From TrEMBL:
It is found in: Cell membrane. This is Permease. The keyword Ligase does not apply. The lineage of its organism: Archaea, Methanobacteriati, Methanobacteriota, Stenosarchaea group, Halobacteria. It is a multi-pass membrane protein.
Amino acid sequence: MIPPGTEAALADSWEYFVHLAVVLAPLFLGASFLVGLAQEYLPPERVESLLRSRNHGSGNVLAAGLGAVTPFCSCSTVPVLAGLLSAGAPIGMSFSFLLASPIVNWIAVVLLLGLFGPAVTAAYVVAALTCAIVGGLVVGALDLDRYVKDVRITTGGRQVATDGGTPTGGTAATGGCCEPDPTPVTDGCCERDATATARTHTDRVSAAGRGALTFFRDTLPYLLLGITIGALIHGAVPAETLQRVAGPGNPLATPLAALAGAPIYVSLSGMLPIAHSLTEAGIPIGTVIAFVIGGAGISVPNLILLNKLFERRLLVIYATTVVTIGVVVGVSFNTVLSGLL
C-alpha cells in the first residue's frame, strides 16, 4: 500500500523537475558555448604567459580573474598550475588561480543567474574572487614552496616541470595526470590541437559551437542527476527536517555544509539545482553557498589530482583554505548581505 501523501509528493517533485529542466537546459547550453569560446581564446599556455611576469598583489588579482574565466577541468588545472610554478610564479599567486578556478566559472555564473538572480550572482562572484585573492596572498606569505612535489607533466604537446625547469616541447608516454619526475605523462583530459593558433575567428566560433554540444551532452547526466535530487528534496523531504539540520537555528550549519559538499559532489552543474531546492526549503542562502563552494573546491577527484602535485601538508592547507572561503562567504551572505539581496 502506498503511504498517504506519496503520490502528491512525487507529483510535486515531477513538476519541480520539469521546471528546473526547462530553466536550466538552455542556460547550460549557452554556458557551454561560453566555455568553448574561453577554451579557444584562453588556452593553458596563454594563461601561463599572462601570469609569469606578475608579482604579488596585482598578480593575485589577475590569477583569480583568469581562474574564473578559464573553464579548465581539474585534470587541466593541475598542468596549468604546474606550468606557473615551473616558470617561477609565486605560490601565492598560483593559489589564487587554483582557488578561483573551481568555484567561479562560466557554468556557475550562468546557472546562478538563472536560479538566484543577478544580485546573488554578483555577490557570489565578488565574494569568491575576493577570498581567492586574499587566500593566495596569505599562502604566499607562508613560504610553502618546499611542499610542492617535483613532477613533470606533458600537456598539449609540451612539458612543464615543477622542479624549476622551463616548459619544453617533446613526446612523452601516456599516463595519469601527473607523476613524480622523471616520468613524463600527458594530462589525459583536455588535449588541444597544436595548430589551433592558426585558425580564424569563424573557425574558433564554429569549434566552440561544436564543443558546446559535446560538453552539454557529456555533462547532461550530471545536470539531470542534480535536478532529480533537487526535485526529490523539494517534493519528498519535509522542510522542517532540513530546517532542523541546516537551518538558522544550528550555529554549525554553515561550516558543516562546507564540509558536506565534498563527498556528494558530482559536478557544479549538478550541485546548483540541489542548492536551489535547499533554499526553497528555507535553508539560508549563505549555508547553501558554503555547501556549493566546499563541494566544488575539495571534491574527491580534485584532491586526488592535487595530491600528485602537493605534499600532504600543502594539500591540507589548500582544503582548509577552501572550507574557510566557504564559511566566510556563507556567513557573509547570512549576515551582512542577507538584508541587501
